[in-house]
Every structure is written in C-alpha cells, then in structure tokens.
Amino acid sequence: MSESLVKRLDLGKGDKWDSMLQGIDDVAALPDPSGIVSYATELDDGLELFKVSCPIGVLLVIFEARPEVVVNIAALAIKSGGCFFRDIRTISPIYFYFYFAGNAAILKGGKESNHTTALLATAIARGLARSNTLLSSTPGFIQSIQTRAEVGELLKLDEYIDLVIPRGSNALVKSIQNGTRIPVMGHADGLCAVYVDEKADLETAVRVVVDSKVRVSSFVYD
Questions:
Q1: Fold classification of 3-189 (topology level)
Q2: Which residues does the chain have with pLDDT short of 70?
C-alpha cells in the first residue's frame, strides 16, 4: 500500500478528523433544502404548476478509499427532507428497508477502506437510533456494502433505487451506466472551473489548474 494511500486512509492525520466533524456542523447549519418552491405558473384557470424541491429517494454511492466521504454523504442525506416507505427485503439478497426523512444512502467505498467505512456507517446508524427523530426507528437509512457482487445486485433494483452516483474513472462511470437501468449521475474528465487569487502561489496554482482540466482518477472498487 502506497504512502499516499495510507495518508488518505488515516483520519487521525493532521486536522482531518476535526475537519470532518466541522463539515457535519456546516451541513446542519444550511437551510432546509426541501419544500422550496423555485418556479410557479398558472397554466389555465384553476390549473397551477409548481416546481418544489424534494428528496431523490434511495441513493447508491460508489467512491474511492476516502473514509471521510462516508460522513459527508450521510450528513447531506440526513439534512434533506421528505418521507416515504420502501421494503425490499423479500426482493434483494441484501437486507434493508426504508421509512425515512431524506435521501437514504447505500455506500460503497474503495476496498482499502472497507472496515473504516463499515464502522463509520454503523456509528452513524447508532447515532440516528438515539436521536429524537423519525430516523431513530429507521434501520438501514445509512449503510455500507463491501463487495462488487453487492453492487451488481443493487444495480438490478431499478424499481427501488433512485440514483447511482459513482465517483472515479470514466471506465467506472461507463461500466455502471451500461450495467443498470437506474439513472446514473456520472461525470467526464476534469473540466472543473478554477479561480486563482492574485496572491496564490503560481507554481501550485498551475498544478491545480492542469489537474482540474485533464486528470482522470482511477480506483478499484471490488
């Protein structure tokens, strides 16, 4: 295992742990994202059309071996609002059911962080169980899976999973898109907008700009 990978996996390195916790507070402080009317028009007498924000539903998120992503995604999912019920225990070999407020998340991190991902997901589930919210009685709202076989099974459940978000190489994104009928939020190679402050270190800025435009990240997710 490379030194850079070990550094990425170590949540005790530098201020990584504190930054992860601060991220939770930052998300909690955001306005409620659900129920916002962003568009309204009268189509005809007595017929009005409204565009209202609401949860997507059940998310399958596949990402690299970066443990803090588990907490980032969980915080955003819990912050979102809404409520509905799903029970797929009799359909899927992977057991879970949902009755929740927000976007439920099934997380698949890189294999190098399997244990940490599982522990963090379990800690979040236990915290929710102790909360005075609807989520306290919702096992499986945030959960993790470990293997490529589990991903393959979940990709078949287009009736129950609403969106797949793979984060990684183009090959990974294409593989997911070609292997499921579930909508996939994919991405292309780097085309990220970068704003460089006049006081920035130019050498570092050049590396960041080039990386944001051409880099193709890659990882093995089995």
A1: Aldehyde Dehydrogenase; Chain A, domain 1 (3.40.605)
A2: 81-102, 133-139, 188-192, 213-222
